Amino acid sequence: MPAAATSALVTAAHTCGNGVAAFNVITLEHAEAVVTAAETTGLPVILQVSENAVKFHAGRVEPVLAGAAAIARDAVVPVALHLDHVTDEELLRAGVSAGVSSVMFDGSALPYEDNVRTTARITEWAHPLGVWVEAELGEVGGKDGAHAPGARTDPAEAAAFVAATRVDALAVAVGSSHAMTERTARLDLELVARLRDAVDVPLVLHGSSGVPDDELRRAVTAGMCKINIGTALNLAYTASVRDHLTADPALVDPRRYLSPARDAMAATAAHLLRVLSA
Ligand code: G3H
Ligand code: ZN
Fold first, then answer.
1. Is the pLDDT of residue 170 over 50?
2. Distance, CA 136 to ligand 2 centroid (Å)?
3. Is the pTM above the cut of 0.70?
4. CATH number assigned to the domain comprising residue 95
């Protein structure tokens, strides 16, 4: 089926009070694993490519998006393509030209007024093109190694930000942190509910790999909608590669250790998809 639009998947989840998973794609194997998991569970999914992943691919967004798009098109469940954590406006344009239906502009490190001004300019550019825009308010910690789980988004500021920028979804800081390898995060669920009541757009949880299953469920019930997951896949992938290379140091053909690594990512993604749809 043709690639789905992020707006359709998130709106459907938002309307029903459900969560929709958005998994980070770094390699082709990530995209294959996530779509296998979506097909196994019969659930829609978002494939997202971050600015950091694009940097890993020598700054070229087209090859990784073309691979993800081909896999999305062949899927028997709805799969949407999204560009994640973008600070470079040139990359936003390149991603939209390459076929994403949605982008996240990450101005969270900017002073509030600059974040508002820049995000508003981006929605003005994106909306006439039919592109759905996510932005972030209240920096979710953990990117580039610095954990700052204490950051919180203020509901009144969130409402003012959404009104001023006309964004379609808002990433909020509620206690999660990026790149956690232990699932020990505890979320401020009372704040999630206050944010849900304060803004009428879907809320996005970043750094979801560090959030335990039961807390992810509670977060969705409290009002989180798009659930961004990256590190959990990389943990599964790398542990599998490490095990296989350790068990057989003579291994050379990457297919011998990347096949089980891709299976491990698919199992992790399927588990999380089921958690979010429970
Ligand atoms: O935007 C991507 C997510 O926030 C991923 O975070 O790698 O901690 O799961 P994570
Ligand atoms: Zn994130």
1. yes
2. 9
3. yes
4. 3.20.20.70
